[in-house]
What we know:
With 184 residues, the chain is mainly α. It is 74% helix and 0% strand.
Amino acid sequence: MWSADSDINRERIARARALEETQPEAAFRLLCEAADAGSAWAMEQVGDRLETGRGTAVDVDRALDYYNRAIGAGSWTATLEVARLLVGLERFDEAEAMLEQGLAGGFVPSSFWLAWYRYKRSPTLATGRDVRPLLSHAADQGHPGAKLILARWMARGRFGVREIPAGCRRLLWLSREIQAAPAA
């Protein structure tokens, strides 16, 4: 999203970043200017600040509005922010609908988070079996969190006891993969 911003918006965002620690209110105003000028990245950042109260008063309704504007401007990551916020407000059906939009658009993290929130809402064996395809899809597409959670849930029997040995093997494989990865 950052690469799609105009030079003027990039300048506003750079100034906002520079002011973030010392003058959060001024940084917030600059982000609002960039958002109003069409920056999807800034829209998402304004939503975050309205949600957390950094540089402005907390306003969840306005945060949702800015996140939704970011989605309309092409930010798939904003769908995750909206879903997370809606889950926190216990508006589960709306959160799932948001994640299903991302899933329909091919946004792999939506698959992981849809599985995660559904299972956390109803942690039963039946739910585990229902969300397994979502989690497997995300893991197959390379989502690191999905790979780990799928292996852990398999090893813990959340998809049935028959999955435990395969889950343990996956955990071992992931452990070796992590150890073999170059240090950052």
